[in-house]
Write a structure and sequence with these properties.
The chain is of the alpha/beta class. Helix content is about 40%, strand content about 10%. A four-stranded parallel beta sheet has the order 2-1-3-4.
Length: about 240
């Protein structure tokens, strides 16, 4: 029996962690794995008090982790984190591509945010996500994705995946495009009474099996879900 696959995740928050964990369970199809949340720090991230560790949560926490992750020679590939895990997932919602430098008040990531915005017209979603992925690699000192690293860039956020799965008839999302609506999370709060989907750890946990059940449908309909699956499965196949 093979050992559990060791997967480490850098993400914007707890709800993203739960969506990606559900996806991983489906993609591994019964293969055991241990998923460790590196960012936000999982020692405090699940306290239910909104904590996220020393780097904070959200996209700025991910950028700070990237800034701090470069190893010897200024490259992520020289960081022991890639030696101690089978797969490292770096998640960043594509709405980050629209961040303006003036929106950033944290001098710790000024050098990274100065590369933004990099968003272009959507569709296609890839026009922006390709640019964001190039920046992510630049921020960790790489020109190509390390062999056991996987980039995950939902457009415009993982909430787009949730809306598409649970509210596929949402007229506003259909009109603007499920991967092009600038703020999918805003649609979670305006669904009909009794079927709203609060963005909370509790709600996502209660819908966890439904997210798993709907993952293959998302891969068929949303390009960035498909890209994440393709990249993840390719990386997993290289691990004995």
């Amino acid at each position: 029996m093979s050992n559990p696959l060791r997967i480490w995740l850098v993400s914007e928050g707890i709800t993203d962690y739960l969506v990606l964990k559900a996806a991983i369970e489906v993609m591994l199809n019964g293969r055991t794995f241990d998923l460790k949340l590196l960012q936000p720090d999982d020692s405090v991230a699940f306290t239910g008090q909104g904590q996220a560790g020393t780097l904070g949560g959200g996209w700025s926490g991910v950028l700070k982790w990237m800034r701090d992750s470069v190893g010897r020679g200024g490259q992520l590939s020289n960081n022991p984190v890639l030696v101690n895990t089978d797969i490292l997932i770096l998640h960043l919602d594509a709405d980050v591509a629209s961040v303006l430098p003036a929106e950033n008040n944290d001098r710790g990531i000024d050098g990274l945010v100065s590369d933004l915005p990099c968003a272009v017209n959507c569709p296609p979603a890839s026009a922006t996500t390709d640019r964001l992925r190039t920046l992510m690699l630049k921020w960790v000192g790489e020109t190509q994705t390390p062999a056991n690293a996987v980039l995950c860039t939902p457009s415009k956020s993982t909430e787009a995946w949730i809306i598409a799965l649970f509210f596929p008839a949402d007229k506003e999302m259909i009109r603007r495009g499920f991967e092009c609506h600038p703020n999918p999370a805003s649609r979670l709060a305006v669904q009909k009474k009794g079927v709203k989907f609060p963005k909370s750890e509790k709600e996502y946990l209660s819908r966890y099996q439904e997210i798993m059940d709907g993952w293959n449908w998302l891969v068929e309909h949303l390009s960035e879900a498909q890209r994440f699956q393709n990249d993840f499965v390719a990386a997993a196949r290289t691990i004995p």
